[in-house]
Design a protein that fits this description.
Layout (H helix, E strand, L loop, with lengths): L20 H19 L4 H13 L3 H12 L22 E3 L2 E2 H14 L3 H14 L5 H13 L3 H14 L8 H18 L7 E5 L1 E2 L8 E5 L4 E9 L10 E11 L2 E7 L10 E7 L5 E10 L2 E10 L9 E2 L10 E6 L5 E6 L9 E6 L10 E2 L10 E7 L4 E6 L9 E8 L2 E2 L3 E2 L10 E5 L10 E5 L8 E7 L3 E10 L10 E6 L4 E5 L5 E6 L6 E6 L6 E4 L2 E5 L5 E6 L2 E3 L10 E5 L9 H16 L4 E6 L7 H21 L7 E5 L10 E2 L2 E2 L1 H7 L1 E7 L2
Parallel strand pairs: 4-8, 25-32, 25-33, 35-36
Antiparallel strand pairs: 1-2, 3-24, 5-6, 6-7, 7-8, 9-10, 10-11, 11-12, 13-14, 14-15, 15-16, 17-18, 18-19, 19-20, 19-21, 22-23, 23-24, 25-28, 26-27, 26-29, 29-30, 31-32, 34-39, 35-39, 37-38
Helix pairs in contact: 1-3, 2-3, 3-4, 4-5, 5-6, 6-7, 6-8, 7-8
């Protein structure tokens, strides 16, 4: 697809024909053969008029070739009388109407530039500058644009600066454009230094027939099959009529190669129109695509849809509400759930030039009244080629807005329906200093892991297709561990992280209680096990509270704070023992007196805490004894709490019959006294 441009704007793409050098030469032979009988006896001015006619009609490629024929006619062709080119008698090379060969050369440079032949355009702008820098001052600006497009950023920056310096105070119309060009070059330089560029792999998709130029706008059909747009020569060539038209094809992508390229059969197709940039409905019953033609140097495009038939696709039907007689609509995309049709249009009511619009898809294949996607997405620049990726909730589109790397860049915006976040330039190396459009990525994958884009970065003129794969950034989980009572950070807590796949890694908290892990997979697939001496072991999942994805190479996930509780530690030197009757948990008089003493200690020392552990003798089941020991510990705690002690100063655990201090059987006989001493509660007073 060539990029059509006006002389006052650097790049405004619209569907056009992509032609390689060999095809170009063949095409020119057809054209020149058809007009050969006119050229034999015609004067030079008539040839210029023909070239100018092609230029005015927007066929810049043909115009450039005709200017070349005028400037460098075949050696055997005798020049008409008075023809001044190459004349030794006339060094000024005046052609007539006060024009010389550099005026024609400048027109040829414009033609090559507008046809995206940057190398050829740059050479001719340079010749004009060397001949008369003052007369062809604007050539310096366009020369800078060509150099930027060719990746010669240092030279492009120097020439743009020189242009601004030499035209300062003049009425040159490109001064603001040159300022913008310097901003673009600076943005490119910043993008080239992005550390995350090492995560990307960009590879051109080849075709088995070796004709990758002009293959663009891939759309999903099924499996690894794609529907692509490419150029095809008409079976019948009419003199004076461009025999190349864009058509839709099926192709299979296998190991980076397009195979089995077959035409899409559409009934009643108008061969005079171009077809391309297609999208299938969610149920596969309708095909939406653009048809366009060129009128008076303007590309007029409309969106059609066809219904699936046994042999292919039915007669195209114009979408009445989506299209308008006073504007163009193009590049349809059907959302994966089948609800919306996204497309680009310069219809009234937008922000300027082409905007992204949205229509509701109807069951019969038609679409409802379009709604502008809004000022958050659209600008006074051009927004085109929308693609929505449901898995990442991202709209990807092409725009020539700022900041950009030149031409059209791919942008992405999170959101859905009419609620969008601010779009961001996807950046280098997905974008280049040329045109980058027509994004595609399969669902159920990250946006840039298996993407396909269209770009003319590696071509002399035409869009080609590239795969984009990005290695995921490193994911770091960060968090900290604290005491459940006082929220103080705890150092040297051992944390073991287990994933559902069985992978185990461990670390310890720092002095400030912090820790971090590098993880693979999803956070909710990980489990943390925390342990430290004098603290209870704790098992915790990961609950992300914040994500910092601003790093080039690393995303940081913040886990919510985790608290752990201290264990009950019994020390003989400050332990009070309360005893209970068999199978009872109520307090005895002696026990109440002991608790009153403990109450006095706690009121006198405001930071003192107590730990209570409950026990039983060996009679009864393990489960029953666990419950009973818990009741005994709670009886002690409840008494002190009722007297006014803060519950946060009391902790307790129940141990059942696990830890007898006396033997309950001696020589096979029951030891009732020993058994009574095991029915107890131990209260440990801590004054730290």
């Amino acid at each position: 697809m060539n990029t059509l441009q006006s002389l006052k704007k650097n790049k405004i793409p619209s569907p056009a024909i992509c032609i390689s050098k060999n095809a170009r030469n063949y095409f020119l032979l057809i054209i020149f053969a058809s007009i050969a009988f006119q050229q034999t006896r015609a004067q030079a001015d008539s040839r210029l008029l023909l070239a100018d006619k092609y230029f005015s009609s927007g066929d810049y490629f043909t115009a450039a070739g005709l200017y070349e024929q005028f400037l460098h006619p075949p050696v055997k062709q005798k020049q008409p009388t008075g023809f001044p080119l190459n004349s030794k008698k006339n060094r000024t090379d005046v052609i007539g109407n006060n024009m010389n060969k550099y005026d024609i050369l400048y027109k040829q440079a414009e033609s090559y530039r507008l046809a995206n032949y940057w190398e050829e355009a740059a050479e001719r702008y340079k010749e004009c500058l060397e001949s008369d820098p003052a007369k062809y001052a604007s050539a310096l600006y366009w020369y800078s644009v060509c150099q930027r497009s060719l990746g010669k950023y240092k030279e492009a920056e120097a020439n743009a600066s020189q242009f601004l310096s030499t035209t300062a105070g003049s009425a040159n119309p490109y001064q603001q454009s040159a300022e913008n060009e310097l901003e673009t070059i600076q943005y490119i330089k910043n993008q080239l230094n992005r550390p995350d560029s090492i995560l990307f792999t960009i590879s051109k998709i080849n075709s088995l027939n070796g004709q990758e130029k002009g293959i663009y706008a891939p759309a999903a059909t099924q499996g690894n099959q794609l529907m692509i747009t490419s150029t095809k020569i008409d079976s019948i060539v009419t003199p004076g009529v461009n025999p190349y038209h864009n058509r839709l094809f099926y192709s299979t992508l296998v190991n980076g190669n397009l195979q089995n390229i077959l035409p899409v059969t559409i009934d009643g197709m108008d061969a005079s129109l171009n077809q391309g940039t297609a999208s299938l409905s969610a149920n596969g019953d309708h095909l939406y695509f653009t048809q366009w033609k060129k009128e008076n140097a303007q590309t007029i495009s409309s969106i059609y849809y066809s219904t699936k038939t046994d042999s292919g696709w039915g007669i195209p039907v114009l979408l009445p509400l989506v299209n308008s007689e006073v504007s163009s609509s193009k590049q349809p995309f059907c959302s994966i759930e089948g609800k919306y049709l996204f497309f680009a249009s310069d219809r009234p009511g937008g922000s300027g030039n082409f905007d992204i619009w949205i229509s509701v898809l109807l069951p019969d294949g038609s679409a409802g009244e379009p709604v502008n996607a809004g000022e958050m997405l659209n600008t006074a620049a051009n927004e085109q080629a929308p693609f929505y990726h449901s898995s990442s909730h991202s709209l990807v589109f092409a725009s020539d807005r700022k900041p950009g790397m030149g031409g059209f860049d791919l942008f992405t915006a999170k959101g859905w329906d009419m609620n969008w976040e601010k779009p961001e330039n996807i950046g280098y190396p997905v974008n280049s200093s040329r045109d980058d459009l027509y994004f595609y990525a399969p669902e159920k994958s990250s946006l840039l892991s298996k993407a396909i884009i269209s770009s003319d970065r590696g071509s002399e003129c035409c869009l080609e297709t590239y795969t984009v794969s990005k290695t995921p950034k490193k994911n770091i989980i960060k968090g900290f561990v604290q005491d459940c009572k006082n929220n103080e950070p705890i150092a040297d807590v051992e944390i073991i992280m287990k994933s559902v796949s069985g992978k185990v890694v461990s670390t310890k908290t720092a002095v400030d209680g912090s820790y971090q892990f590098e993880i693979t997979g999803y956070a909710d697939e990980q489990q943390l096990i925390l342990g430290k001496e004098l603290y209870k072991e704790k098992i915790s999942g990961i609950n992300i509270t914040e994500i910092d994805d601003t790093g080039w190479l690393t995303d940081i996930f913040s886990n919510e704070p985790i608290c752990i509780e201290k264990k009950l530690v019994i020390k003989p030197e400050n332990v009070v023992t309360l005893y209970f009757d068999f199978d009872k948990s109520n307090l005895k008089e002696r026990g109440i007196a002991q608790l009153d003493s403990i109450y006095s200690v706690l009121t006198e020392d405001s930071i003192a805490t107590i730990q209570i552990s409950g026990y039983t003798d060996g009679r009864g089941t393990e489960e029953y004894n666990k419950v009973l020991s818990d009741k005994r510990a709670r009886s002690c705690a409840g008494y002190l709490i009722e007297k006014g002690i803060d519950p946060n100063r009391i902790s307790f655990e129940s141990f059942g019959a696990c830890c007898p201090i006396e033997m309950e059987m001696i020589n096979g006989r029951d030891n009732a006294d020993g058994r009574s001493r095991n029915r107890r509660a131990l209260i440990n007073i801590k004054k730290d």
